[in-house]
Amino acid sequence: MANRRLKRKTMELPISRTRGAAILVIGDEILSGRTQDTNTGYIARWLGQLGIPVREARVVADVEAEIVAAVRHLSARYDYVFTTGGIGPTHDDITADSMARAFGTAIDFHPTVFAALAARYAALNVGTFNEARQRMARIPYGASLIGNSLSGAPGFQIGNVFVMAGIPAVMQAMLEDVRKRLVASQALSSVTVSAFLGEGTIAAGLARLQKTYPDVPLGSYPFSREGKFGTSLVARGADAAKLGEVRVALIDLVRAAGGEPL
Amino acid sequence: MANRRLKRKTMELPISRTRGAAILVIGDEILSGRTQDTNTGYIARWLGQLGIPVREARVVADVEAEIVAAVRHLSARYDYVFTTGGIGPTHDDITADSMARAFGTAIDFHPTVFAALAARYAALNVGTFNEARQRMARIPYGASLIGNSLSGAPGFQIGNVFVMAGIPAVMQAMLEDVRKRLVASQALSSVTVSAFLGEGTIAAGLARLQKTYPDVPLGSYPFSREGKFGTSLVARGADAAKLGEVRVALIDLVRAAGGEPL
Question: Residue B195 pairs with which residues in a beta bridge?
Answer without folding.
Answer: B231
